[in-house]
Specification:
With 324 residues, the protein is mostly beta strands. It has strands at 19-20, 24-28, 39-40, 43-52, 61-66, 72-77, 81-89, 95-105, 121-128, 131-137, 141-146, 157-158, 174-179, 190-198, 204-208, 215-219, 225-232, 238-246, 250-258, 268-269, 271-277, 286-293, 299-305, 315-322. Strands 2, 3, 4, 22, 23 and 24 form a 6-stranded antiparallel β-sheet that branches. The chain has a 5-stranded antiparallel β-sheet with strand order 1-8-7-6-5, with no helix packed on it. It has a 5-stranded mixed β-sheet with strand order 13-14-15-16-20, with no helix packed on it.
Length: 324
Amino acid sequence: MAAVMAVTLFPVSIGASTIDVPVSVRQFSGFEVGTSAKRFGKLEFIGGMVMSSPEKLFGAISSIRFRPNGEDFVAVLDTGHWLTGRVTRDAVGALSGVAETRIAPMLDMSGREPPRKMDMDAEGLALRNGKVFVSYEQRHRIDIYADPGFLSAKPVGRLPHLIPNDELRHNGGLETLAVSPSASPLGGALVVVAEKSIDADGNLLAAILEGPLKGTFAVTHHPSFDVTDGAFLPNGDLLLLERRFNFAEGVGMRIRRLRGADIRPGAVVDGEILLEAGMAYQIDNMEGMDIVKDADGSTRLIIVSDDNHSFLQRNLMLEFKLVE
């Protein structure tokens, strides 16, 4: 969900047209403003970049997923658009640019581009076995698209999300959608975590959507922070990206690690904080995160922000290395 909501109308059309989008970047090497520090707890900052484009549709990134090569990516925008592209790197391996970037409208079950943003408020994204799964809030659901083909086609199906719609907040629903490792106890099942929809005990609603452990569970909700995305580590632990946005405390970002062994039906899961950053760091409205394996074998976290199409905010892409 965007931290600042805006109502955007798009033309209704049958079929979808994809546009090429030029993206320029400005690199930066420091995460904490005014220092050259690289190590932050169990994370090492590799680098970051500010992305901009003359194309007005660029921005509002809600979730991002990388292909196995660690370069090509698929992202969803909460305006109801797909974003695809490829990251480039400089001589020392830091993020240096975005290439082959394309944007296309997302289509509904009728093959049309809905006229209202609330009908296609895409928040979560997962790629698995020739399918793309997208979770939406406001009209809570998980739609399934063919991969390849999603850029110009309607959904091929829908995945039940187990959490009753009347328990999901209008603008705080199915925010995180992640694929567990096939070798983990969850056996490759999709897992969903709500942004700020809570149960009677104040815990975030969550569910394992498939497999022998299919069922609902809960994630401890810490004050001030809301879950915006998540991704599984190869060992089965789930990393959650969390965002703070309020006038009293300002903008904040946090990464929490949930043990994979704790994720099971009926459980209430919490975990260690790997990183917490506030306004003294290079952050914005951080919304999307994925985990990739680098060429050197290290585990990398790539995190992107949602600029809400506001001139006061930035489209950031940050990269960290997990140092165990």
